[in-house]
Amino acid sequence: MLKLSSCRLAAALFALLVVGFSLLGSALAQEGSAEGEQTNLGPCEGLRTVDTTLIRFGAPWQCADLRGVDLSGVTMMDVFFSWSDVSGAVLVGANFYYGDLTGANFSSANLFGANLRRTRLVLTDFTGANLEGADLTEAILFRTIFTGATYNRFTRWPVGFDPVANGAIRVD
């Protein structure tokens, strides 16, 4: 009985892995059509408008259009921002602890003092973002873009991560 359950669990995990790699492959195959325009929406068909007054834990904001919004000080632990466009947003002191930000576009966003601990930052774009004082401790970084992102001595990175080698700029 134990062996049969183990086999079913292994098969289910394998199926999840295959689906995950399929989504990742399709996302990587897409390219931007114009400079500064995010067209890599992964599994999204387009961006959708969300009601930013409905802030809550585990908010399902995948594929959301949050360009330029001010969510300073918001607490959205365990949030799903996958493939959302948050470019130019003001997220000063925001708390995204343990959230999934896969494929999100945070280019030129102000994340001063933001809590990004234990977040999934796979294929996430922080080009030109302000990460001064942000906490990225234990964040999962894979193909994350930090080109031109600014940080300071108070910014916390995952163990062994070199922000300068990844294009970030120290400002103090």
Could you characterize what this model shows?
With 172 residues, this protein is mainly α. Helices cover 16% and strands 6% of the residues. It has 1 helix and 4 strands. The chain has one helix spanning 2-29; strands at residues 120-122, 140-142, 150-151, 169-170. The strands form 2 sheets. Strands 1-2 form a two-stranded parallel sheet. The longest helix has 28 residues, at 2-29. It starts with a helix and ends with a strand.
Note the topology.
Layout: H1 2-29, E1 120-122, E2 140-142, E3 150-151, E4 169-170
| General form | globular
Distance between the termini: 61 Å
Look at the helices and sheets and give the structural class.
mainly alpha
Give the strand order of the largest sheet, numbering strands 1, 2, ... along the chain.
Answer: 1-2
What is the residue-averaged pLDDT?
A: 80
DSSP strand (E) fraction? Answer: 5-15%
Give the helix level as a range of percent: 10-25%
* Biggest pleated sheet: 2 strands, parallel
Residue windows where pLDDT falls under 50 for at least 5 positions: 9-38
Rg:
17 Å
